[in-house]
Write a structure and sequence with these properties.
Layout: E1 2-11, E2 14-22, E3 27-29, E4 32-34, H1 36-39, E5 48-49, E6 72-73, E7 79-82, E8 87-90, E9 95-98, H2 160-163, H3 181-190, E10 198-203, E11 206-211, E12 225-226, E13 235-236, H4 238-246, E14 250-253, E15 257-259, E16 262-264, E17 270-278, E18 282-288, E19 294-299, E20 309-310
Parallel strand pairs: 1-3, 10-13
Antiparallel strand pairs: 1-2, 4-19, 5-12, 6-7, 7-20, 8-9, 10-11, 11-14, 15-16, 17-18, 18-19
């Protein structure tokens, strides 16, 4: 597989384009736009073993409303709790749900995306809530077809959680929302001990990225290494992860990406939409391969993951 990654960085307001290519057997443009300077510094960090707090800010775990217990600062005055799993959609029944487990992904079956598909999908173009015919099964390559074609979707019906009732997430519209660019940036980089509260991992054999709540303390008998730059240092069985989850840990699986009906990078790349636009063609997302994590932009027609949150 050949991966061609186009990045755009700002340095003292001077644009610098960087093209990288990794040779294999198939050409694919990941279409990723880095926002490095906007972050202030790199999100890579140094690997550190944690145990960074004694006052764990969680509520008793109860998935009946689709909400995980951990509380995460996304600004100086605001905290959120994440959904129990990635957002999923079934076109044949027009039903939305959260994945039963945080490590569940649809994978290659996203290639079957259509208006009548009876299976589930979990990779969506930006702003495809179903509002004003912006359907979750859209595969249009016209960037203006996504959201309202121009503006942020935060607080609008183009946001999946605002417009839709999630069957295992309270089953009522307006209970959930997608984080903004500023909130993802604050979560990953600005909150207290931010660099110590995130890193690559494998859970039940699925690769992805762990986010730990404010005031985290690792459960007895388990370990977590921040920013290990691989998926193997932090490895948890399903039962071990249940202990992490019970005290607030969030796992964002590497669900891959979709270009029309071409699904790639399942298990090696995770990309999660924000509700923030970046010009007419792009929208902001957080993404992570095996060795770093960052906040950048992708073309609006890219199929990426959605993890909703609530206050």
């Amino acid at each position: 597989m050949e991966i061609s990654i186009r990045t755009f960085a700002w340095a003292i307001n001077l644009p610098i384009f960087v093209e990288t290519s990794v040779k294999s057997n198939k050409t694919f443009m990941l279409k990723q736009l880095l926002l490095i300077t906007l972050l202030g510094v790199s999100l890579l960090g140094f690997a550190q073993a944690n145990s960074v707090g004694e006052n764990l800010d969680v509520t008793p775990i109860d998935k009946t409303g689709g909400k995980l217990p951990g509380k995460f600062s996304v600004s100086a005055t605001k905290k959120v709790q994440f959904a129990m799993g990635n957002l999923q959609y079934q076109a044949s029944t027009k039903k939305w749900r959260f994945a039963e487990n945080q490590y569940d992904v649809i994978g290659e079956d996203n290639k079957n995306i259509s208006s009548s598909y009876s299976g589930w999908i979990d990779l969506f173009g930006w702003g495809t809530s179903g509002y004003r015919k912006k359907y979750p099964y859209m595969t249009s390559t016209d960037f203006s077809d996504y959201g309202d074609g121009e503006n942020d979707i935060a607080g609008t019906n183009y946001d999946w959680g605002v417009y839709n009732a999630i069957s295992n997430g309270g089953n009522k519209a307006g209970l959930w929302r997608t984080l903004t660019y500023d909130e993802w940036r604050y979560l990953f980089h600005t909150r207290t001990n931010a660099e110590d509260l995130r890193g690559q991992a494998s859970v039940n054999g699925q690769t992805g990225y762990v986010l730990l709540p404010d005031g985290w303390s690792t459960p007895s008998g388990l370990e977590f290494t921040a920013n290990p730059k691989n998926f193997t240092t932090n490895s948890y069985s399903a039962s071990e992860w249940s202990k992490m989850e019970a005290v607030g840990a969030v796992f964002l699986p590497c669900a891959g990406s979709r270009d029309v009906t071409d699904v790639d990078f399942v298990g090696s790349y995770g990309g999660y939409w924000s509700s923030t636009s970046n010009g007419y063609n792009y929208a902001v997302n957080v993404y992570f391969p095996s060795d770093y994590a960052n906040v950048g932009s992708s073309y609006r027609d890219d199929g990426l993951s959605v993890r909703l949150a609530t206050e």
